[in-house]
Amino acid sequence: QIGSMNDSQDSLDGDLMTCVSSIYRVAVLGSLGVGKSLLINQFTSSEPLGTLQECSSDSDADGVSIMVVLNEQETMLQFMDKQEDVTAATDILPEAYMVVYSCTCRVSFKAAVQICQHLKEHVQTDKSVILVANKADLARRREVESDEGRRAAFRYECKYIETSAALGLNVDELLVGVLSQIKLNLHPEYP
Ligand code: GDP
Ligand code: MG
Questions:
Q1: Ligand 1 nearest atom to the CA of residue 135, by list position
Q2: Which residues form the signal peptide (predicted)?
């Protein structure tokens, strides 16, 4: 079991994670105002998953690290709030990308689709991409239907999920989904 984690551990750096078996980085992308910060904030208080604690980030202010216990395995997920800066040069590539839009804002959906396209063209295919349609609670202000979001996700081979960061709807499912996708991609033999 430990042996199968070697691949991911090789890429670790810093002393933040000396205490955990694995850490995965998740870049959170999407237009301003779609709810990225609130989603990440909700993750930190996500309880049904057995989230143990919120570990404060060591360096930059926009990285939030969350300890998740899933299937009796401890994992550190480090969320990096990157807005639309998908092309920014990074020394460390994340294991997953959360591309967020608001279903009340078509412009943000178009931006999300462009990000997905960029990721498909420029990023290794073994990275997990999750398309997140947030603000699902604002039904009357909806501009992007679920089907449209689902089709875009299908086209770019992403997972699709609808959330409401405000109500905490599907937030735990998103957290589990991100982690499961990462594990599935890194260790297809252990789904
Ligand atoms: P960011 O720029 O992507 O980080 O977006 P924020 O997390 O700062 O959210 C922008 C605004 O949208 C804030 O006023 C949030 O309270 C609100 N917001 C975020 N998510 C939701 C949601 O799911 N539903 C509703 N109704 N409002 C939300
Ligand atoms: Mg923000």
A1: 23
A2: none
